[in-house]
Amino acid sequence: MSVIQALLIAVFVAAIESRALGYTTLTMRFSPLMTGMWVGLILGNMPLAMVTTAAIQLIYMGVVAPGGPLPSEPSISAAVAVSAAVIGNLDANAAVAIAVPVGLLGSYLYQFRFFLNTFAIRKMDQYAAEGDSAKLGFWIGAIPTLISFAIFVPLMFVALYLGAPVISDFMGSISNGPALHVLSTVGGGLAALGIAVTMHVIGNRSLLPFFFLAYFLVVTSNTLIAALAKADIVVPAITTVTWAVFGVIIALLYTLFTTKKSEA
Fold it and tell me: Over 80: is that where the pLDDT of 240 sits?
């Protein structure tokens, strides 16, 4: 990874963590997908980056941030883990195992940002009492953003420029041993944990049948297609877009029938 590549990724992560673009960056912070896309664009391997990010995304499904802090920072974990995966051509599940501890460290860094922001509160109170809206807006918006960039840009640059190649080289050195197999197995299990969190967040038991319906439809269709392929029968694979269309149709039908039932 070059200096420019590491710097571009670090600035992108800092912009997300600082909420510099308002609600847009807040939404991007909850999901590693945009960070993974940016890493793939910068490092020149979009397919591998998105496959790896999709695996990382599963462990953050249903994650919420009460009060601001997350138990793990998706953007930071994706930046480091996807970079290591692209540089070292790692398996997606192994990258997930890397993302978890990196994201945990990132959450402490985000909380440290909150601590530094408290030093600006005195100035905010002062200009609020004086009724100076221009200076108050500057201290509310600009100062926390500058603090965030001062924290995340240098630390993420060092982590990416020095850390990602070291991680990828280390993972490559153990690729033929049992350690990588263990990491891949653990990483695959973490995806199931993310799905379980999503089911818990849904909370409404009436919606759970749709979840299980989608899951078993996908599993059954993949099994059927694999069986037909062994019998030398060519069947086109069902893509994610097709399943999304089915989901929209089922949702519309459910809404249509339940609305009529309520009106009746």
Answer: no
Single-letter amino acid code for the residue at 165: P
Residue 231, phi-psi category: left (phi > 0), alpha (psi -120 to 50), beta (remainder): alpha
Instruction: Specify whether the CB–CB gap between 43 and 85 falls below 8 A.
Output: no
Tens-place pLDDT, residues 60-82:
775 555 555 566 788 888 888 88
- The amino acid that residue 121 corresponds to is I
Phi first, then psi: what are they for 234, rounded to 5°?
-80, 120
pLDDT band at residue 263 using 50, 70 and 90 as cut-offs: low
Distances (CA, A) of 262 to 255, 256, 258: 10, 10, 6
Q: Which residues, at least 6 apart from 138, have a Cβ–Cβ distance to it below 8 Å? A: none
- As a whole-number percent, the residues of the chain with pLDDT over 70 amount to 76
The dihedral through the CA atoms of 163, 82, 61, 16 has a sign that is positive
Handedness of CA 39, 11, 141, 112 (dihedral sign): positive
Q: What whole-number distance in Å separates Cα of residue 42 and Cα of residue 68?
A: 29
Band of residue 1 on the pLDDT scale cut at 50, 70, 90: confident
Q: What are the structure tokens assigned to 168, written together?
A: 């990828």
Residue with structure tokens 């969190």?
A: 197
pLDDT band at residue 180, thresholds of 50, 70 and 90? low
Q: Which residues contact 223 (CB under 8 A, 6 or more apart)?
A: none
Distance of CA 144 to the CA centre of its chain: 23
The candidate with the shortest Cα–Cα distance to 30, out of 159, 186, 194, is: 194
What sign for the dihedral angle of Cα 86, 195, 101, 103? positive
- Residue 81's Cβ-side half-sphere holds a number of Cα atoms within 13 Å equal to 35
